[in-house]
Design goal:
heterodimer, A: six-stranded antiparallel sheet, two-stranded antiparallel ribbon, 8 strands, about 25% strand, B: five-stranded antiparallel sheet
């Protein structure tokens, strides 16, 4: 995978706050695997999905999303997070591998990812929320 | 001229606000309501005792005055006396109607202590005055109308007030102080009314005064930017305590998009499974505690408000992006403990520690850490 590839991450509607779409902020928990993730955070391969098609794919599975943000493969490398192109459960699915990180390291990485994604801005937003 | 004095009411106000024996001005309406209620009931008793009379004598209240004699200690006890003129050596003859009215009002309050009691022996037109009595009582406050009676103190509370008003109301509605937050979704300038969508999604109508129009319109014009407002005032509620209308606004404020108390109120509506089937709902009491504690201890005047998010474990996470720093504090609602984490995105160094949020000084530490970042 090329370093410039973006890894698209859905943001849950309860994890945004702000008074206008351009100013909406999201939580670093967007980049923190939950206990059900078993250390593997689901993202869309930006080489195979646009932010909008990734969003549509996500909500078609009856999952909620307020929009799409992203980190690049290069940023994952810098934070020592392997990107697994597992293509499972669908073609274009990737996992950010946090399995070797302690809780403290996960928090640190999530904070770093939030800042990268925040600087990049929203790539797609559900404007009906 | 000599005047006769009769002690009519010695309501004992109880609660934190009355510990220093002062009487908050927003409760002054109670005293005038007792006067109006007594006069109306005295007239009713007159007609009851004189079935041959069709009307109240024109001078029925002449010579009678209600006076606040003192505010006695022992919590706060405004002593209301009835002053009446004398006819020779005796008080004027109609005084008895007023003293009897006072007794019956206290009897109604005493009966309303029993949640099963659905009937009060005074007319609805008099019961209606209870809309204005005890309207400003807080949840932890009460008024004892027979403070010296060891058996029955005739305690008036928000709950017993509601019971009386529901009996008097054909629509089974009652009035109460309200404090709500939400979005203004429609305004009718001609009628001076508005629609507000409350945080829980309920839509309610309200009316505003000309001087409140500017704020209402500003909130309405920014509705798409989710501009919320808070309203303190009076409203009509149904038997299930659901707000039906806002009848009067005493205070109206535009809220900051990151207002923490409002956000915590929103989070209190989350249910288990909120995170696509996962995610524990935050504990409501814990959220209330956090809203109060944050309000008392966080320096909102000088520090940026944090973004506030739920966590899958049922906790709350505050987050600040300040300069080079990404800062978060997860608040564990069961332990009332903060897990502080700050990360410098340039040096890639971080700090992590726990803060016991029950201790005021730990909030000072949090404030201090944030002051350093905004310098």
């Amino acid at each position: 995978m090329e370093e410039a590839i973006l890894l698209l991450r859905q943001v849950h509607p309860s994890w945004i706050q702000g008074d206008s779409f351009s100013q909406q902020v999201f939580t670093s928990q967007t980049f923190t695997p939950t206990s059900k993730d078993e250390g593997l955070l689901s993202v869309y391969n930006g080489d195979m999905f646009t932010p909008e098609t990734a969003y549509n794919n996500h909500i078609s599975q009856s999952l909620k999303s307020a929009g799409v943000v992203a980190v690049s493969k290069k940023e994952c490398n810098e934070e020592d997070v392997p990107v697994i192109e597992d293509n499972d459960p669908f073609e274009g699915h990737c996992s950010l591998d946090f399995t070797s990180k302690s809780k403290g390291q996960v928090n640190r990485t999530a904070a770093a990812f939030k800042r990268y994604a925040q600087n990049r801005g929203w790539l797609f937003q559900n404007t009906s929320l | 001229m000599d005047r006769h004095k009769e002690v009519l009411f010695t309501p004992k106000y109880q609660g934190t606000r009355f510990e220093h024996h002062r009487f908050p001005l927003d409760l002054v309406e109670d005293l005038d309501t007792l006067r109006k209620m007594t006069i109306d009931l005295a007239k009713h008793i007159y007609l009851e005792n004189n079935p041959d009379k069709k009307r109240i004598p024109k001078n029925f209240t002449e010579g009678i005055s209600f006076e606040l004699e003192s505010i006695d200690k022992g919590s706060t006890i405004p002593k209301i006396v009835l002053m009446a003129g004398m006819t020779g050596l005796f008080p004027q003859h109609n005084l008895d109607y007023f003293t009897e009215a006072g007794k019956r009002i206290v009897e109604v309050i005493e009966k309303a202590e029993d949640p099963e009691n659905k009937k009060f022996e005074i007319p609805d037109t008099v019961l209606f005055h209870f809309h204005h009595l005890g309207k400003k009582l807080l949840d932890d406050e009460s008024i004892e109308f027979k403070p010296n009676d060891p058996a029955k103190k005739a305690t008036f509370t928000k709950e017993s007030r509601k019971r009386i008003l529901l009996v008097a109301s054909k629509n089974k509605e009652y009035s109460s102080d309200v404090f709500v937050k939400g979005l203004i979704t429609a305004v009718d300038k001609l009628k001076q009314t508005f629609d507000i969508q409350l945080i829980n999604g309920d839509k309610v109508k309200g009316c505003y005064l000309p001087e409140q129009q500017e704020t209402i319109m500003e909130a309405f014009n920014k509705m798409e930017n989710k501009q919320k407002i808070s309203i303190k005032g009076d409203g009509i509620l149904n038997i299930n305590d659901k707000l039906i209308t806002i009848t009067e606004m005493a205070e109206i404020n535009l809220l900051d998009a990151f207002d923490v108390a409002t956000r915590l109120e929103e989070l209190s509506l989350l249910e288990d499974g909120w995170l696509d089937g996962y995610g524990k709902a935050p504990d409501k009491q814990g959220l209330e505690w956090l809203a109060k504690t944050f309000d008392s201890n966080y320096d909102v005047e000088n520090l940026p408000l944090p973004a506030t998010f739920p966590t899958p474990e049922g906790n709350v996470q505050f987050e600040w992006s300040i300069g080079d720093f990404e800062i978060s504090m997860e608040v564990e609602l069961t332990r009332l403990r903060g897990v502080y984490h700050e990360y410098n995105t340039i040096t890639k160094k971080d700090k992590f520690f726990y803060l016991n949020l029950k201790e005021e000084k730990k909030w000072f530490i949090l404030n201090k850490l944030l002051y350093e970042k905004i310098k």
